[in-house]
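Budget justification aside, the reviewers requested a transparent look at the raw inputs and outputs of the sequence design task funded under Objective 1. We therefore reproduce one unedited record. The lines immediately below are the structure tokens for a 178-residue chain.
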């Protein structure tokens, strides 16, 4: 059983986080542009659509919904740049630059790192507010910091990523304990 069997249920669950979201499979060969790992291991958000590897289980999909829906919000915030309107086709190459495993000059890589940190931190907050142990959430933040380093085209030096993720996590714990 893959998530595709449960698509309607998951779609309804995702709408809680973002009303406009559409779940889609990542079957198109076009995704190979970012390499085999990019196509098979990662969900990718483009505009309002979250593209998900079709071999994933429903649980895997649930574990990324908050993070990916935050990317939809980012697209909305940067809509003029990434293109959610009639100019969308021009936004797609820009999107690939920011999200796919394309090695970037350091300034653009910084933007990608910030977008990922922002998206993941929304997920940490969601998990913490729903009673997940802070150690577990912290572990998740560190393993995602590692993913960002390893699979996102080395966007930013690893010690800096880990530092940035830790800083954000600690700030969040403080603000939630107030
Ligand atoms: Zn992301």
């Amino acid at each position: 059983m893959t998530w595709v069997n449960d698509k309607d249920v998951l779609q309804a669950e995702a709408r809680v986080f973002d009303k406009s979201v559409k779940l889609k499979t990542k079957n198109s060969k076009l995704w190979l542009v970012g390499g085999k790992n990019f196509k098979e291991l990662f969900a990718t958000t483009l505009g309002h659509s979250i593209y998900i590897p079709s071999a994933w289980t429903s649980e895997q999909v649930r574990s990324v919904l908050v993070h990916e829906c935050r990317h939809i919000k980012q697209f909305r915030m940067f809509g003029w740049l990434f293109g959610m309107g009639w100019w969308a086709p021009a936004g797609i190459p820009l999107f690939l630059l920011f999200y796919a495993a394309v090695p970037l000059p350091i300034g653009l890589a910084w933007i990608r790192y910030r977008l990922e940190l922002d998206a993941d931190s929304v997920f940490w907050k969601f998990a913490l507010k729903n009673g997940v142990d802070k150690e577990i959430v912290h572990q998740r933040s560190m393993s995602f910091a590692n993913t960002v380093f390893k699979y996102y085209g080395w966007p930013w030096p690893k010690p800096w990523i880990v530092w940035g993720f830790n800083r954000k996590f600690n700030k969040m714990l403080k603000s939630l304990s107030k």
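Residues 67, 71, 116, 119 surround zinc ion (CB under 6 Å). The chain has two domains: 1-102, 104-178. Computational costs for records of this kind are itemized in the attached budget.
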